[in-house]
Amino acid sequence: MKFDLIRKLLNKLLDFFFPSRCLNCFKISELSICFECQKKVSFLKDFVELNGENIYCITLYSGVIKKAIWQLKFNERLGVLDFLENILVKYFPENFSDFDFLLPVPLSDKRSRDRGFNQTELLLKSVSKYFDKDIANNIIIRKKETKPFFKLTKKERIQEVKGAFIIKNLSTIRGKKVLLFDDIITTGTTVKEISSLLYKAGANKVYILGFSRAGYNK
Question: What is the pLDDT of residue 117?
Fold first, then answer.
């Protein structure tokens, strides 16, 4: 915690005393991700089947996208939101557009306090405004602090996420079409668990959208 606070303070000092730079190539740029680096995004824009779920992923979690999301989540570089939001709105799947509300994958209370925000919710604000649909950030609660998934195998992830979420308000889900969103999709374990809960609660349809798709070899 102390190290994170020092790092964040140093980032703010650097931003104040030095010209802004691209967070990917570090060249001087008024944009958080310069135009040249924006051209290097690896797009997927297709469905992947993971754990029996069809999940639409827009980009690959690599290169400039990986660095931008990392800077957002762990360095609080909110300036990259414009770059990421533009991609999300521009390449939003057309056949997902009839949803009733947006549902970001929730963080645990501890992680939310430590980070100060939920990056999936922040990313959805542009979509919420574009489609004039609400972000339902109080329907699903993460009651269990799960271990970092990058340290776990697929089998361990499935076990770890069991019982990690609960639905707070069943009446808001029944008969609705829900767009479930996560910033990084790897095995699809988390979104599958939430999707199953939503269907059990009476959801008419659950669209699953991932901003990026990470490779997984375990």
Answer: 79
pLDDT digits (tens, 9 = 90+) for 158-174: 777 888 898 988 888 99
CA atoms within 13 A on the CB side of 117: 15
Boundaries of every domain in the chain: 2-213
As a whole number of angstroms, the distance between CA 45 and CA 213 comes to 10
The owner of tokens 């660095």 is 67
The structure's pTM equals 0.86
Instruction: Give the architecture (CATH level 2) of 2-213.
Output: 3-Layer(aba) Sandwich (3.40)
Residue 101: which residues within 8 A CB-CB, separation 6 or more? 133, 134, 135, 136, 172, 176, 178, 179
Q: What is the pLDDT of the chain when averaged over all its residues?
A: 87
